[in-house]
Specification:
Layout lengths: L4 E5 L17 E5 L3 E10 L4 E11 L4 H19 L4 E5 L2 E3 L4 E4 L13 H9 L3 E5 H12 L8 E6 L3 E7 L2 E2 L32 H4 L1 H14 L2 H11 L7 H9 L3 H25 L3 E5 L8 H11 L6 E4 L6 H12 L7
Parallel strand pairs: 2-5, 5-8, 9-12, 12-13
Antiparallel strand pairs: 1-4, 2-3, 3-4, 6-7, 9-10, 10-11
Helix pairs in contact: 1-2, 3-10, 5-8, 7-8, 8-9
Length: 344
């Protein structure tokens, strides 16, 4: 395969010089519920920048054997072309990143349920050192290393999608907590009257309000409370088969429909409540917001609503810069940095 540069990544001024500039590059692999993406992350001495090259992708298999074979095949192809030094894996679920074990997988990743130690299995099959990381952690580290949070010292990144993911970097280190559960910001409680059941089984988690699913619930409740005529007009104009979806809400919002405007305004308040609570605990200098729903965030409005609730206003709130490549980049860097320093 011919090398194709699919993204250029600016080095971090806060960090020590990138180890990518010396020796063999690492592979980053991002495992999603429907697709696996893999690429080599290397330093380009001509530009002084880091590059993502030879991007591969594959549907995510549902059975463990095919899943492992797919990962091994990707790694072997990239290693044959680039002679890599290590492999970083970004995956959903609770991950023991020290031992490479998946402590808790998600429902959309059935292949992981029967894999006791992903790191051990891949190292045995490829002969390369492997580092396994939670996907939100890897994405946050990628943004900190090469993306929107470059130059920051303490940051966290959230992803707004079907759920709410989060990763934390403090004092230049990935923060995972004592039992690898740190960064589950989507499951802080923002209400106390059992208003909404979360997918985790608990009540009133931030995710149940700020995620795409939460936005849809807010839309349904707002529409139900509206006058009958307004409901009918909204559904006739924006809802296919009368079904209220996030797409319908966004279309109404863009059309300056008053119900759509109210729903999105409430959604920004929901996001701001969670962000301000996290800011008051962690006092970061940078917050990065990414995920599929980030394109619909009014960052000026969100910053205003968040500052209203925060003890500090000395932080930046910015959109993510690396898009779908953040997990690949973060995993690759973490894999490289988990290896011993080369001898001088």
């Amino acid at each position: 395969m011919k090398d194709t540069v699919v993204s250029q990544l600016n080095p971090q001024p806060y960090h020590s010089p990138s180890r990518l500039a010396v020796g063999q590059p690492p592979i980053g692999i991002d495992i999603g519920g429907t697709k696996i993406n893999a690429a080599v992350v290397r330093h380009n001495p001509a530009t002084g920048e880091d590059e993502l090259i030879s991007l591969l992708n594959s549907p995510t298999p549902t059975d463990s054997e095919t899943f492992l074979n797919t990962l091994v095949d990707m790694i072997q192809k990239l290693n044959a072309e680039h002679s890599v030094s290590a492999v970083g894996i970004s995956t959903a679920g609770v991950v023991d990143s020290i031992h490479g074990r998946i402590l808790g997988s998600t429902g959309n990743m059935p292949a992981l349920k029967n894999i006791a130690n992903l790191k051990e299995l891949l190292e045995a099959k490829t002969g390369l050192p492997v580092h396994v990381e939670n996907d939100a952690n890897a994405a946050a580290y990628g943004e900190w290393r090469c993306g929107a949070a470059k130059g920051s010292q303490n940051m966290f990144a959230i992803t707004l999608g079907t759920g709410v993911g989060m990763g934390i970097v403090f004092n230049g280190q990935m923060y995972r907590g004592s039992h690898f559960y740190a960064g589950e910001g989507g499951h802080i409680a923002i209400a106390h009257k059992r208003e909404r059941k979360c997918t985790c089984g608990r009540w009133d988690c931030w995710e149940a309000f700020a995620s795409g699913t939460g936005l849809q619930i807010t839309a349904e409740q707002t529409l139900e409370a509206a006058p009958e005529t307004a409901q009918q007009e909204f559904k006739a104009k924006y809802c296919e088969n009368g079904k209220v979806t996030t797409y319908a809400v966004i279309a109404a919002w863009k059309d300056n429909n008053h119900i759509g405007q109210q729903i999105i305004d409430d959604w920004h308040n929901h996001i701001a409540v969670g962000l301000s609570s996290l800011i008051n605990v962690m006092d970061p200098d940078m917050i990065v917001v990414g995920g599929g729903l980030a394109q619909f965030v009014d960052f000026e409005l969100l910053l205003e609503r968040t500052r209203e609730r925060s003890m500090s206003d000395a932080f930046q709130l910015v959109p993510a810069a690396l898009g779908n490549h953040a997990g690949i980049v973060g995993a690759a860097y973490l894999a490289l940095e988990s290896q011993p320093e080369p001898l001088a």
